[in-house]
């Protein structure tokens, strides 16, 4: 944790955004122990709003506030790794500069205690500190503070309700920025008090550009396929992609990063294996299916991951009717639930495959 | 008074003999001995002192009378002797239970055979004693209010045998605070520690043996045959059975007179008889045991009738004598407890109640009203009658109608049905005809409730026994599915308390409905009697947990997850010779790693459930989690103990470990525990080739 | 005397018998003396723990050897690092608290000799997949809190049951089961070291029978040695008693489908349970039988999955096991009925 605090991009006295921490762990200590390793996600976070990739609408609004306009309360939502946290941090840094930043920004994420109590006490006291528009160095800063509530959708609705009052009361001196993945999990009174911005999933092209840039700066040898594979396994989540890249670098120890390493780290089931499973289903032979399934488990692939990938595959298949797809999808959902309940992977997989087989063979 | 008190308490030996004396009881147990039975007497703290003072002035006889009422059944023999004669003269407020206490064998509402059984035992022990014969012990069991004590007392009277009864000394701990202020000298009062109770009990037994009862109140001294009666078991013995057994052993060796224990079965508690007198002890000490049944309805009717007519002839103006049907209802409502039946008879026929707003008839009216509406609504007359009956029983019942587990299970599994009488009742459409059933005569939920068992426990009993009642495997499939669902409902400990009932409902109704062989009233016969068994699951799951824990602690050096340990390492270690470490491990491997192959279906021993058994309430609160908290060490120690007994020392060294080829070293002990449970194969099944 | 599986356990990343490439990667990982939280997963008997121990040895030198003994005693953890086994498996629902307390004490305890080695401790938690969701969340918080002083190595069979935040905080290392060839190879080399000759055929049969579980293969091989030496390539491979017993049980199911037989099977299930065979294993084994595959496989598979799920959630395993067996019987009976009918028809023609 000290690692982050010392890092130039670490943002608050509070713990930095939780998601980065895994990355931090993976973030190599390649530089040795004297120089604490910095996770690349932190290192290559956009420094100013302009650098934020692909979210033009948001950037446009925020830029206006940089030019002196007032900032509304913000609600950022969208899939993970699309730059929500980066955007608000970049904005705050541009607004206040590195020095005032610590005084004027309070960041809370899901890892911190965020019960009603905390909302009432911590946020309130922070919000009640008045700030003046100007500072000792003569520069003019906006006369408000920013409270960033990351992963707001994991707050209890009671805490959210408590927040509502605070938001109204402190509107003179404080701006809130709520960040969440699912807007449906934020209570209505809160959403209506914020201007909402949806963050689009990054396109493959933009992600690839970023990844190339990072690997260039870090002097990592990486193959073309590996990059596109990274983009694919991270499903539009740039943070995940960068984290994977860093882990892969550490594992390979200087050699070129190949597609195989990437799939390995991501724990993704290779395409061939899935195809093998599906063709076993297609064949209608239970013996075959059994061996394939057993192998899959023996290889250590997680059934939950497989369910996800099978889903993608099934949905796109053209030789299945909608009805057949829906039958399979229902079973997929059931299996997923059972797996989270701790049911046996092999049995669930076999029963799933049996359904898939039934549907596939019905066809032919 | 004060000096009397202190002198008595300080001189312990006197006290011992005094426990049989009523005045002492009264003295001590002023308000607190029988707080529940004696609400009238519970007086405030302030006037207790006063009251005590008054006692000395209370004439002896009236004191005695009061006592007789208080103590009811436990009053000693001298009251009983002249009790029936006193009956007439006593006040009308006296409970009828005491007023109409039977005076002769004929009046007893106990089956003749039972009385004879007890009588012949008594005769054999008292009049035909061999000179060298030691003391003998009889245990009488039965539900409360079935006449156990009265039988003994009447028989004793008729045989002219003196009864000496043990009464628990009252430990005054709980009154210590009260006394401190009121009587200063009480601080020096000797508290009776719990152990003392045991000592005193022993003292009592051996003394009662030697001396005759102190002569009191001018009673006759002719009867020198006597019998010791113990109804009130010192609590200490429930915790420490061994000491009881020890005392009994001494008693049997040294004593000359019979000892009778009276133990009431209770519906909610554990079976005390089993607890206090396990089989081994019963056999060792030749304890005979006679169990009483609940009073049969016909007998009870006789008694109630007798009382009713007697009351009517005596106090006709004061009592509204109930008619025959109401007597029958009382009879049903009290489920064989004659004491409660008489009590409810007295209560229900009190004129004050019956005249002003008539509790009795109001209840009745209520239910008839209900039955009317119901009848008109559904036109199912019979069913309406049934519900009416149930309601009334509950309305009057001085007692919840409860069912023994045995009968409860029987009701569910034999599921009596009644043919659908007429076509008015809508039938299921034809495609659902396989679900067509006749009307059930039982209410599964009621039964479960009356069995006084949590639903999940009841389910276990059901599960243990249901298969015997099925003939078709497809039915079993459905029933087992319902049981599985029922368990699933109960699985979350958060909601278990709420869902228990539903779960029991799912299980019982599921099992009843899925048994197509008993779907209709006309195919009910030909079932025959099937024995019930107690669920094996507790034993199995306990053993499973224990074994797992032991495995973990014994083989921790392998650092394996339990799964690997149990399914891979242990079974293979059983086959290997070399890596044996210590005796406990070897024993465990042999026990757990090996399975009795080639011995087809040596099934686990089944414990038959009888109509007296009350389930295993001890297990109610022990869920799997608690079991797992059992100390593995204990198990281990136990194992090692077994080990020491089991292995012969000269076979001990494991020299053969290297040399041995295919056979296991001879020194490895035979499996112990698992075998112990196994019964020798009683079921031979035709050989089937394994794959 | 120790088991072959322990005796010939490789003790350096450079000397592992298979997955060499992965071993090299792991070595790269710890080369600089530090490593991220690890999440090692893979089927049982694939060598997860072997690799973890090798990794630790790489970090700490031979001292790890001693720790192996020390780790059993929970209260006495080493100043340098800490190796904890699955002590929470008996904690049940309170495992969350156990985890928190545990990590707290470990992470906060001061290192006595700071000079010697690493400035962080390593905590190894096995069977993380058995932790409740609550405990996993607690673990996630703790991971963040003590990142500076503590590295976690989590070990589990499957990551399906690990919550996403933990997965994303760890570098996931998948250890697949060794292939048949790998196992053959290991078996031969172990036998060679023991001074035994192992026929290739037998090695192969052992490997296949083990279901790609190296530990099991080694144990079986050792049992073979006890049973008969010199080896012949067609000798019987000893089976564990419970497997034989289950097979018998299965044929009992197949030979007759009546409620009476179900009762007998129940007795056998109880017997298995008292011998520490977990219920889910019993269920799986019955499904694996060839007889199960030849008739209405789909239904049997569905049903097994269904009841196994129930088993996980329910409280008393026997209900679900028995329901499964009953259903199995009914399905089989139906199947046999169909089959004989068809047979009769054929005969008539």
UniProtKB/TrEMBL annotation, chain A:
Localisation: Nucleus
Gene Ontology annotations of biological process type: DNA repair; DNA-templated DNA replication
Region listing for Disordered, in residue ranges: 1-32
The AAA+ ATPase domain, residue ranges: 70-202
Keywords from the UniProt entry: Acetylation, ATP-binding, DNA replication, Nucleotide-binding, Nucleus
Domain of life: Eukaryota
Gene3D superfamilies in UniProt: 1.10.8.60, 1.20.272.10, P-loop containing nucleotide triphosphate hydrolases
Cellular component terms (Gene Ontology): Ctf18 RFC-like complex; DNA replication factor C complex; Elg1 RFC-like complex; nucleoplasm
One Pfam family recorded for the sequence: AAA
NCBIfam families named among the record's database cross-references: PRK00440.1
The name this protein goes by in its record: Replication factor C subunit 4
Originating species: Gopherus evgoodei
Automatic annotation (TrEMBL), chain B:
Residue intervals of the AAA+ ATPase domain: 134-291
Domain of life where this protein originates: Eukaryota
Keyword Nucleus: yes
Subcellular location: Chromosome; Nucleus
Complex and partners: Part of a DNA-binding complex containing RFC2, RFC3, RFC4 and RFC5. Interacts with RAD1 and RAD9 within the 9-1-1 (RAD1-RAD9-HUS1) complex. Interacts with RAD9B, POLE, SNU13 and MCM7. DNA damage promotes interaction with ATR or ATM and disrupts interaction with the 9-1-1 (RAD1-RAD9-HUS1) complex. Interacts (when phosphorylated) with NBN; promoting recruitment of the MRN complex to DNA damage sites.
Extent of Polar residues compositional bias: 364-375, 654-671
This protein's UniProt keywords: ATP-binding, Cell cycle, Chromosome, DNA damage, Nucleotide-binding, Nucleus, Phosphoprotein
Segments for region (Disordered): 38-100, 364-387, 647-671
Protein known as: Cell cycle checkpoint protein RAD17
Known role: Essential for sustained cell growth, maintenance of chromosomal stability, and ATR-dependent checkpoint activation upon DNA damage. Has a weak ATPase activity required for binding to chromatin. Participates in the recruitment of the 9-1-1 (RAD1-RAD9-HUS1) complex and RHNO1 onto chromatin, and in CHEK1 activation. Involved in homologous recombination by mediating recruitment of the MRN complex to DNA damage sites. May also serve as a sensor of DNA replication progression.
Gene Ontology BP annotations: DNA repair; mitotic DNA replication checkpoint signaling; mitotic intra-S DNA damage checkpoint signaling; negative regulation of DNA replication; protein localization to site of double-strand break
One Pfam family, short name: Rad17
Family per record: Belongs to the rad17/RAD24 family.
Principal location: nucleus
TrEMBL record, chain C:
Pfam families, alphabetized: DNA_pol3_delta2 (PF13177), RCF1-5-like_lid (PF21960), RFC_C (PF22534)
PANTHER family, alphabetized: REPLICATION FACTOR C / DNA POLYMERASE III GAMMA-TAU SUBUNIT, REPLICATION FACTOR C SUBUNIT 3
Name under which the protein is recorded: Replication factor C subunit 3
The protein's assembly and partners: Subunit of the RFC complex, an heteropentameric complex consisting of a large subunit RFC1 and four small subunits RFC2, RFC3, RFC4 and RFC5; the RFC complex interacts with PCNA. Forms an heterotetrameric complex with RFC2, RFC4 and RFC5; this complex has ATPase activity but is not stimulated by PCNA. The heterotetramer of subunits RFC2, RFC3, RFC4 and RFC5 interacts with RAD17. Interacts with CNTD1; this interaction facilitates crossover formation.
Main location: nucleus
Keywords: DNA replication, Nucleus
Primary gene name: RFC3
Compartments it resides in: Nucleus
Annotated organism of origin: Gopherus evgoodei
